[in-house]
């Protein structure tokens, strides 16, 4: 009897500790980098810290070989993660790795391209479907519509290049999907720190919700349109949060230290990973009068 009780107790303890371990286990995120026309060696540790600061995620980094390197060795195990964040803009991966990423997202994984990650892979169909729209790399009207906002979303098929930006400056962001989990409760207008305001991004733009736009002022060599800059994309059973914000000038991370960039990224990564946002909105989310940055 005693030994039966003891073994029942040990089973109970094992079950309880398993439960506790599960409850405490963080979500897992993977950042991809290794090539970028921006200083990824400065931005990846920042992005990692920002995502881990939610208290929800443990973050790993998978670094692809540099230019001309052997991509055969770059085989991240996407399935070990809930969300993959791309800080990569460079050469194609192997067919296997590319298909593994598409498969991961299609089956319910999250994907978060940051800034120039949307410049990558102009000729990879699945990638462009995941990110919705991208820029440069020969993109033009054949890549798909340019998304801008004039009282409603405009899918502009007029001919022209896909991807440009004017002079760097701080600019006003405007929420266009206030009920979306990423945006719910955030101010409808907020100042974003000095950054490149990407314009004329183009792509398949299927199943895209434009979350926020910014006016691209001709005075700073912009388009005169409200350019779409934050996006939510449904891709199969997976979710993509795409932020076109976050330029860095070498190790200068001014745009990525904007509280608005940080908080929308944290919420977007959680939404991409789980379909929900449980984070409270911090008191330092910027309003429309001034930029608010974190150290
Ligand atoms: Zn940039």
Explain what the structure shows.
The protein has a single domain (about 25-275), classed as Class I glutamine amidotransferase (GATase) domain (Rossmann fold). It has five helices and 13 strands. It has helices at about 1-25, 40-50, 95-105, 125-130, 260-275; strands at about 25-35, 55-65, 85, 110-115, 145-150, 155, 165, 170-175, 190-195, 200, 210-215, 225-235, 240-245. The chain binds zinc ion. Zinc ion binds near residues 38, 115, 116 and 247. Zinc ion binds next to loops.
Outline:
By secondary structure, the protein is an alpha/beta fold.
Keywords:
binds zinc ion; 5 helices; 295 residues; Rossmann fold; alpha/beta; globular; two-stranded antiparallel sheet
**pLDDT < 50 runs, ≥5 residues:** 18-23
Task: Give the second-level CATH assignment, the architecture.
Answer: 3-Layer(aba) Sandwich
Domains, number: 1
- The helical percent reads 10-25%
Give the overall shape, derived from the CA principal axes. globular
What is the number of E strands? 13
Structural class: alpha/beta
SSE order, one letter for each helix or strand: HEHEEHEHEEEEEEEEEH
